[in-house]
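User: Run a structure prediction on this.
Assistant: Running it now.
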Amino acid sequence: PETVQNDGHGLHMRPADYIGQVHTLNTSNLYYTDLPSTLERLTERDYRPEAEEKRRLDMSQFQSNSPNTKKKAAGGDDEVDNAIMSLKAKAISVAPRVLEVKKFLSPVEVQHLIS
């Protein structure tokens, strides 16, 4: 198993022992293929766990389902959506440590940031 380093600064970083080293990053945060017509400005109250979960579920309709994997729920016959997307982080510099993650954002996300 890969070890994530914490170099005393509170941030977790993947190691960059040599240029070209590749790490696989698995995330449940999938690409957005569309966005709602309006996005509300978030307030401090919106970051409570229950509000965060509701917002995540509301926004999931706009996310890609192509990398989805469906798994059976424990003790039941219902399928649970456990979508995981894999990204590759490649070390392009050791000092300073720089990792390149290609295809980090979808075209929809890029356009949203630009506009």
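The two ends are 40 Å apart (CA to CA).
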